[in-house]
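lol forgot to send this yesterday, sorry. struct tokens for the thing we talked abt
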């Protein structure tokens, strides 16, 4: 199995997944990097997976369908996404070539956001990032926390394939929230070294995120205390604490 994050726009990743001669494309916001990669190695995708309707994740679909007419497209049942001929939702199981994925509804960033989990991989779009989570454009804090709880319960070795290279900015914020967490410090150092070498910091593992990502650590006393100190009164209940942490990040400039 080979997993390739194709950089797109300023900080997106389009994921290519290869096994023998089977290939999947996840969240092609732009067709050009996908067409270039497929041209370069003479391989064509079996299908496209989409996590949510934002243009930086779906914008390349029409051009890819023009290049490969009839290519199956699996995505949320949401009229805002053109080209989905296999609408999928929570509890569905998708089989493509050698892969099997379970579909999880993960509302929060958008109301119809889904994730694909299977074969040791998680494609989670803009729900979970390394050391962060997506902004709440459409869902509530309760929605997003419920989604993150579900993702956090997956096996520790799961490779987490996120939609953006946000790790360094997320790390700067996470270190303010949780300064005495050695796992977080190590992950930040590792991410800085990877970016210095021009490498993606992704995929990350769920175990690493459970250890370092403050949005998965809302029940840890140190994180709860940091939120309470920043926004007094906001930390009594875990949804309020999560909402306070998300708002804090929204206003944070490193
Ligand atoms: Zn998005
Ligand atoms: Fe995005």
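and heres what i got for the seq, position by position
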């Amino acid at each position: 199995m080979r997993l390739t994050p194709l950089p797109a726009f300023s900080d997106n990743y389009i994921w290519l997944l290869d096994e023998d001669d089977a290939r999947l494309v996840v969240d092609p916001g732009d067709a050009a990097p996908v067409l270039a990669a497929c041209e370069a190695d003479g391989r064509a995708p079996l299908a496209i997976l989409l996590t949510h309707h934002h243009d930086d994740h779906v914008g390349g679909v029409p051009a890819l369908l023009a290049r490969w007419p009839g290519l199956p497209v699996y995505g949320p049942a949401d009229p805002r996404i053109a080209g989905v001929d296999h609408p999928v939702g929570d509890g569905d199981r998708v089989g493509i070539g050698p892969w099997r994925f379970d579909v999880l509804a993960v509302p929060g960033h958008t109301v119809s956001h889904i994730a694909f989990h299977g074969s040791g991989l998680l494609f989670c779009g803009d729900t979970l990032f390394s050391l962060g989570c997506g902004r709440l454009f459409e869902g509530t804090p309760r929605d997003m926390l419920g989604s993150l709880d579900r993702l956090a319960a997956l096996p520790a070795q799961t490779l987490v394939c996120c939609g953006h290279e946000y790790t360094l900015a997320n790390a700067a914020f996470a270190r303010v929230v949780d300064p005495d967490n050695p796992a977080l410090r190590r992950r930040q150092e590792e991410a800085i070294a990877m970016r210095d070498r021009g490498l993606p910091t992704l995929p990350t593992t769920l175990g690493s995120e459970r250890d370092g990502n403050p949005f998965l650590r809302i029940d840890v006393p140190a994180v709860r205390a940091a939120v309470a100190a920043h926004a007094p009164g906001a930390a009594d209940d875990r949804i309020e604490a999560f909402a306070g942490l998300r708002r804090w990040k929204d206003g944070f400039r490193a």
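The chain has one domain: 2-250. anyway ping me if u want another try
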